[in-house]
Specification:
Elements: H1 3-33, H2 35-51, H3 54-72, H4 92-102, H5 106-122, H6 131-145, H7 147-166, H8 178-181, H9 188-224, H10 230-249, H11 253-260, H12 262-277, H13 280-296, H14 298-303, H15 308-313, H16 315-335, H17 342-372, E1 374-375, E2 381-382, H18 385-392, H19 397-403, H20 408-438, H21 447-468, H22 472-506, H23 518-546
Antiparallel strand pairs: 1-2
Helix pairs in contact: 1-2, 1-9, 1-21, 2-21, 2-22, 3-7, 3-16, 3-17, 3-22, 4-17, 5-6, 5-17, 5-18, 6-7, 6-13, 6-17, 7-16, 7-17, 9-10, 9-16, 9-20, 9-21, 9-22, 10-20, 10-21, 11-20, 12-17, 12-20, 13-17, 16-22, 18-19, 19-20, 20-21, 21-22
Length: 547
């Protein structure tokens, strides 16, 4: 990057940082001063975006998934995410382990049992409280936590890794727009892209933090009788936010990262525990059946719009949540995939985490069904305490299931620790990703910026929780839906940009010439004409010499 470019990046980072900080501060202030008004605005936005524009989220997500696979299996799949002589930074095993760990998030912990129980109760595509509704419930949960979300993350990670490691551009979302706008990404166009990326990332992470706090409070209430009010949830958010922010400020980040990695081993422990004690044969049969149903109905589920009201609460929320998480997870995937090919990146970052998610959901949901349901001859089912707990409070579903298994006095508190570690891991990583987005793509952002964004996450989450009243989950869902809406278009343009960049790898006449930069295109056209004229002149001189 030239000195001029470095100055432009420095100026740009100040603008992005200041505007993003103002947005976060204004939102927190308005929510604190006018909680009722904030709640009304949230409800209005949610009704409009999910009710009138829900179809748009479905179509965009479908496009991202099919575009990802098309890119992976095209000739562009051989392009290296780095210089031609770069080798992967991590071995295959280490890379697989990192992607595997990346698949463990608060969404899986929160919804793996609660969501299938909800679909069993409502029967969105089959009669409720039947064996068919149970099969469909697991398949729908697979769809929400599987290939669609990880393909989107892999796509963003590929775009970032290509521009950062092959083209030496800043670690910013706006860098992916260079093939479209050229050096104008260092001006207002880039400001808008990076501010929207920051906005989407902040609210996507806040949704996860809110869900984690709800599940921690739900566990404390279920096991120890704690109060479940929103004030308690806010206090949990505040305490943990203070913890990871202080760790960042005092230089304990490296130590805390190692501690957070324990979540992988703890998650494996829980999977094995559920598998062994939750009904091994039933779980394996249900897993096989559910995966088959998922694959068979993949296209139908992707485009299904049979129940708009149900979709607005489930699929639309999930797609928005994953779109708003795309920068966050995409940045992580890009960071660990230098030297990989485009095909390796897209397929590995999609199927490895998705495969882990499938296994996790199948084990948890099947164990809960096996422990809780009585199957009748007419195909209907009778429900038990797990179903009742999950429908009374989403956050207690896992604890209610553990209560039906051995060693509850040990596994219950360990479940709280697992949720806490997932919470801590997401929040801690976000204290790096958010400063990167607002500090010119620096992979070692200043401590002050990390502290600010750590505190901002907690503050925004607390405002949403306190302003929502009883509709805490709806407020958290709306935050993701709202943040993802403009960002969908950013991702769509990014797809156009990466195709343009990849074409340039095979076509010298395109090269790095930006699509929408008229002067650059004219200059490239002139260079091509000069090269053609020079080649023709050389041929004529060679022919004359032979005569």
């Amino acid at each position: 990057m030239s000195m001029v470019d470095k100055k432009e990046v420095a100026t740009k980072s100040k603008v992005v940082l200041i505007v993003s900080m103002i947005i976060a501060i204004v939102f927190v202030a308005l929510g604190a001063i006018f909680p009722d008004g904030t709640a009304r605005v949230i409800n209005i936005l949610n009704s409009f975006l999910t009710g009138e524009l829900g179809w748009m989220y479905l179509l965009f997500m479908a496009f991202f998934v099919f575009f990802t696979f098309g890119l992976a299996f095209s000739k562009y799949g051989k392009i290296k995410l780095g210089k031609d002589d770069d080798k992967p930074e991590f071995s295959n095993f280490q890379w697989f382990a990192l992607l595997f760990g990346g698949g463990i998030g608060i969404g899986l912990v929160f919804w793996a049992i609660a969501e299938p129980m909800q679909h069993l109760a409502t029967g969105p595509q089959d009669p409720a409280l039947t064996v068919e509704a149970m099969r469909t419930a697991v398949r729908i949960t697979f769809a929400h936590e599987g290939v669609h979300c990880w393909a989107t993350f892999a796509l963003v990670g590929t775009c970032l890794a290509y521009h950062v490691y092959r083209k030496d551009r800043p670690f910013l979302m706006s860098s992916a727009f260079y093939p479209l706008f050229g050096d104008r990404i260092y001006g207002p166009i880039g400001y808008v892209v990076d501010i929207l990326a920051t906005f989407a990332t902040l609210f996507g992470i806040v949704t996860s933090l809110g869900l984690a706090a709800m599940q921690i409070v739900g566990g404390l209430s279920y096991m120890y009788g704690f109060d479940t009010s929103n004030v308690t949830v806010a206090i949990v958010i505040a305490v943990i936010t203070l913890g990871f922010t202080l760790a960042t400020a005092t230089g304990l980040h490296a130590w805390m990262t190692k501690v957070v990695n324990l979540k992988t081993w703890l998650a494996i422990l829980f999977m094995l525990f559920f598998l062994v004690f939750g009904g091994f044969v039933f779980i394996m049969r249900n897993m096989s059946d559910a995966i088959g149903v998922y694959l068979n109905d993949f296209f139908t589920q992707t485009f299904w719009y049979g129940d708009p009201e149900w979709l607005s609460s489930w699929t639309v929320f999930y797609w928005a949540w994953w779109i708003s998480w795309a920068t966050f997870c995409g940045t992580f995937f890009a960071r660990v995939s230098k030297g990989r090919s485009v095909r390796q990146m897209l397929l590995g970052s999609t199927f490895l985490p998705a495969g882990f998610s499938f296994i996790w959901i199948a084990i948890y949901a099947s164990a809960a069904f096996n422990l809780d349901l009585t199957f009748l001859e007419d195909g209907s089912v009778l429900t038990g305490p797990i179903f009742e707990a999950a429908n009374a409070d989403y956050a207690t579903a896992m604890y209610a299931t553990l209560e039906q298994l051995p060693l509850y006095q040990i596994m219950g508190p360990l479940a709280l620790i697992l949720v806490f570690l997932c919470f801590l891991g997401a929040a801690d990583s976000a204290t790096f990703v958010l400063p990167m987005l607002t500090m010119g793509g620096s992979q070692n952002p200043p401590k002050k910026a990390r502290i600010f964004w750590g505190a901002a996450q907690g503050a925004v989450a607390i405002v949403l929780v306190l302003a929502a009243g009883e509709a805490t989950l709806k407020a958290l869902q709306t935050a993701s839906v709202m943040a993802a809406f403009p960002f969908m278009f950013i991702l769509a343009l990014m797809c156009i940009g990466i195709v343009r960049a990849f074409k340039g790898e095979f076509n010298p006449s395109i090269g790095d010439t930006p699509m929408f930069d008229k002067e650059a295109r004219q200059a490239a056209k002139a260079r091509k004409a000069e090269q053609k004229a020079a080649a023709q002149k050389a041929a004529e001189e060679e022919a004359a010499a032979e005569q």
